[in-house]
Amino acid sequence: MPSIALQARQHLALTPRLQQAVRLLQLSSLEFQQELREALDTNPFLEYVPPASETGEAAEAAEGAAGIGAAASEAPTALADMPGGSMESGMDGGAAQETSSYGDEQGNYSDENSGYQDEGGGYTADLPSSGSLRSSTYRGSEDGDSEASDWVRVPISLRDQLHEALRLSPLDELDRAAAQIVIEALDDDGYLRQELADLVELEGVADILDEDRLRVALCVVQTLDRPGIGARSLSECLALQLEAMPGDTPHRDLALQIVTQHLERLARRENGELQRQLGCDAASLQAATALVRRLDPKPGNHYGRADGGYVIPDVIVRQVRGKWVVSVNPAIEPRARIHKLYAEMFARSDQTSRSPLAQQLQEARWLIRNAHKRCETILRVGECIVARQKAFFQYGEIALRPMLLRDVADELGLHESTVSRATGNKYMATPRGIFEFKRFFPRELETRTGGTCSAAAVRALIKEMIDAENPRDPLSDVVLTQELEKQGVRVARRTVTKYRQMMKLPAAEMRRQI
């Protein structure tokens, strides 16, 4: 018959503090900065810590107004007089003694050496200075400071390039306005997919411009920069590029006839019908077809996108005195600390530990601690990657070694999932460029001699072979597979095809030049 019984059992659960630590670790640098700004806006116990340069400028301006005229190098000492104490207070090197930043997945959260006070005592858990993160921290600029915008990749967009070229064109006011309207109507790939009649109907345009003037303006825009910009169809785009070639280009007229009248037949590879329609031999058709295939169907893609993603590196790698040094990017360091004045006022009040203000103070202290641990963990993982992939920084991608997340986890004493979070959406600035952490974890491939090599090294070999090939006799995927076999790398033909497509390299027939 039914009965009620009590049963005691144990189960693992993440504490709220550890849940926050895990969530912060897996955020990208931009998402983390946004999270920190939201906390600064909503939590009264958090205050912003300005960079040393901003504080120095403010202190110098104040002293100049008072007639003191102190040197700018002494300005950062004004931090010690601000509420919350000096920026140098905090961990004082304790972070370097930590054995684990996030512990394991069982909730073991170790911070006995973190330098922060326990939940029960004090409210002065200031964020450590950037210099106390690790002894290997190396500033990104000569003045010891860097801004996030210094690492933002901002390529010029298609519209900006065309507007700049338009300024140099000798046009009257109406023609210039018409050209600006056409430029703004272009898509990101360079095509004009709106009808000119629709542009005339825009508010305020019909009163001063007509369709004929916009048509003339379109012709002007098509000559401002890369041939093919401003085309209204693929056929027109290819035709503009062919017309921009010198008149004595071999088979140019035949190729122009193909793209304007027989583009669909070319796509269906109806070579026999094309020969009959054009009245040419097979060799001439092959040469004209090869000329068409070298054209760019989307010329606008060579420009930056206005809505492109921004990448800010989390760590910076530099070679200092023959050694590779890894440091946290100063531009993404968390600039927040407990507001000492508010914390002391709360401590003198009669608020209970369950009041909303007490909860906000606890959340502020957790956020500061977890933000620092996030930087520390990312730095440790970055140092481990650099130590294991030193050959990459000297010789390039061809020297990348196979590496697994488990290798880094075992070396650092972290859980593999923690390393996965610390490498996801994280970037490293190196002398060879900015790379995602995941780039340094290529999978392992066997060689003929029984050794191993990385998939990234195989892709680099394929790229080198294609760059060095004869344009008139390009290497097919089968030949590439055989060449790799001669160098001791065993890969299947379909693997070579996959790697070639990953690098956005066309097939041999598309690379052939006559």
TrEMBL record:
Superkingdom field = Bacteria
Q: Which InterPro entries match?
A: RNA_pol_sigma_54, RNA_pol_sigma_54_core-bd, RNA_pol_sigma_54_DNA-bd, RpoN_core-bd_sf
Similarity comment text for this entry: Belongs to the sigma-54 factor family.
Keyword DNA-binding in the entry? The reply is: yes
Q: Does the keyword Transcription regulation apply?
A: yes
All copies of the RNA polymerase sigma factor 54 core-binding domain together span 153-342
Name of the protein in its database record: RNA polymerase sigma-54 factor
| Alphabetized PROSITE patterns for the sequence | SIGMA54_1, SIGMA54_2, SIGMA54_3
Q: Where is the composition biased (Polar residues)?
A: 97-116, 127-139
Q: Which GO terms describe its biological process?
A: DNA-templated transcription initiation
Q: Where is the RNA polymerase sigma factor 54 DNA-binding domain?
A: 357-513
Q: Region Disordered: which residues?
A: 78-148
User: What's this chain's function?
Assistant: Sigma factors are initiation factors that promote the attachment of RNA polymerase to specific initiation sites and are then released.
Q: Which GO terms describe its molecular function?
A: DNA binding; DNA-binding transcription activator activity; nucleotidyltransferase activity; sigma factor activity
- A Pfam match is Sigma54_AID
Instruction: Name the species this protein comes from.
Output: Paraburkholderia eburnea
